[in-house]
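Exercise 7. Given the components listed, write out the predicted structure of the assembled complex. Treat all entries as one system.
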Amino acid sequence: MSLYEVFVRPRRGLSHTHVGSLHAEDAASALRYARDLYTRREEGVSIWVVPAAALTASSPDERDAFFDPAADKVYRHPTFYEVPDGAPGI
Amino acid sequence: MTALAIADDALIAAQRLLAWVSRAPTMEEDVALANIALDQLGVARALLSSLGDEDELAFHREAHEFRNCLLVELPDDPGGSVWGDFGVLTAKLLFLAAYQKMLYDRLADSEPGALGAVAAKARKESAYHLDHATQWTLRLGDGTAESHGRMQDAVDALWPYTHELTGLIERADWLAIVEPVLAKATLARPADGWQPTGGRVGRHTEHLSYLLAEMQSTHRAHPGATW
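Answer.
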């Protein structure tokens, strides 16, 4: 039995979102178990299962180095532009 | 083949499956079996309600008044182990789901009214039950020597009871689904021999009485009770 991470797309047009994990014999059974465990109340229209071992994750120890430097760089936010009147979709 | 027989197949199958809740090999399989059991219960409730009072029909009939096939009432372990045998469960589900899938397909296309409507919904559920049972049959049959042996024992023990799974569907059509699965799972297709029947006219094995005693006891002890 290996660990799989489960991603479900709630409906067309949205991205797959991580919903949890499960144990399964292989990828095919993981997909079926995911259907039973995570979509039994109409939560989704598509499922991905990924072996947990295949994921490379950032470590909590690296959090400061990874994420803090972004905190004071306001110029990365698109807030320094004048949005022209009548520009749609912004 | 009456709606009552179809409803009773589903009801008794649900009761047997629900006995596996908390006893399946893994938590994931536990939920999967509970889902299948609830699908069966849903069909049973819809059909029994269309025939009369569902509680009356489920809880106040005696064994000889039930019209389910013998296959669904058999314990999951013919040897009598308290915990059941997963191979027997898998073989029963494979045989039943193949039959129910074809039956519901037929009814959905031909029956107007409640029966056709229930079948139209249940055919998708049965397709999934068949898939689930097929996956496990392949995994166990083509697995270790231990799992292959127990799966073959289960198929051999249950095979005679599959002769009763006819009526609206032809056995040849049922075999066309089941035989390739057995072959792929490296399981031997048993020879046809003894062909027990009787469930459809109310002649059941002794196992049904014990099952009903458990299923009906609470309702009979507390008539009219609600949550």
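Discussion: Helices of chain A lie at 27-38, 63-67. The interface with chain B takes residues 1, 22-25, 28-29, 32-33, 35-37, 40 of chain A (CB under 8 Å).
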